[in-house]
Amino acid sequence: MGRISDTVKHLIIINVIFFIATQLYGDVLYQWFSLWYFGNDNFSFWQVLTHMFMHGGFMHLFFNMYALWAFGSPLEFKWGKQKFLFFYISAGIGATLIHSGVNYLYLQQGLDALAANGIASDSVMDVIRQGQYSPAWYDYASRGTIDNMLAAFSTPAVGASGAIYGVLVAFGMAYPNSELFLMFIPVPIKAKYFIPVLIGLDLFSGVTGYSIFGSGIAHFAHVGGAIFGFIMAWYWKKNEFDNHRWN
Q: For residue range 137-171, what is the model confidence (pLDDT) as tens digits?
């Protein structure tokens, strides 16, 4: 972890520009560029990419950009600009697919639970599309089921974290014995230990709903980015493609 690579530097600059723009025109840009559920009227196809450059606050931006610099630059120096950028965007899109798939399941679980109690799915969707809900729904399904259904449809996702988790996994595979000095842990930890534990905590939080790192975190997007990052890095390494640079 030393000097910054070119593509990483440009990605950070783009993220910072997006962040400054959201401070000036927040509501409009969040509506246009955040990732909404694909059945939501606010959804547009470009959000699959643009949400990766949006952030919910300065600390969200800071930690993602710090991780991008610290773990992304060594990979870009190893792979080259085009290969790293392809990996980064692909991991982010993979995170989007997993996140959106889980949201679809959450929505269907809620609709199915209510339909089993005689409440038509179409009427439920009409209410949700208006940004509302019925307190009576909690009488027919668990609070977690209803809350997940509402959040899946109405809460947009922002942030580079999915792509960053892909980068973390690839870094751990390329430099497993690299010792990481983290701000909140006073002793160095090797990448091959820290990164799997971090992903495991996200998976635990996503499955149980108990968030260790705070609320409003798209845990399955993190896991999705890690999965797609692992698949790409593993495939490249297995096929002796890992050390080939793209010019």
A: 999 999 999 999 999 999 999 999 999 999 999 99
CA 34, CA 53: separation in Å to the nearest integer?
A: 9
* Beta strand spans in the chain (E): 179-180, 189-190
Q: State pLDDT tens for residues 25-65.
A: 878 999 999 999 999 999 999 999 999 999 999 999 999 99
d(Cα 162, Cα 153) in Å, to the nearest integer? Answer: 19
- Rounded CA-CA distance 145/226 in Å is 26
CA distance 106 to 145: 7
**Cα–Cα nearest to 206, from 195, 194, 222:** 222
DSSP code at position 71: I
Task: Supply φ then ψ for residue 191, to 5 degrees.
Answer: -60, -35
Average pLDDT, the chain: 91
- Domains, the chain, with CATH or none: 6-238 (1.20.1540.10)
Q: What amino acid is encoded at 67 in this protein?
A: A
Distance in angstroms (rounded) separating the CA atoms of residues 27 and 39: 20
Over residues 71-119, the pLDDT tens digits come to: 999 999 999 999 999 999 999 999 999 999 999 999 999 999 999 999 9
Q: Rounded to two decimals, what is the model's pTM?
A: 0.91
Q: Are 165 and 225 in contact (CB under 8 A)?
A: yes
For residues 26, 29, 35, 39, the Cα torsion angle rounded to the nearest 10 degrees is 110
- Quick one: which of 164, 161, 25 has its CA closest to 88? 164
Q: At what angle do helices 81-115 and 6-33 cross, to 10 degrees?
A: 30
Closest Cα partner for 96 from 56, 151, 50?
50
As a whole number of Å, the CA-based R_g of the chain is: 19
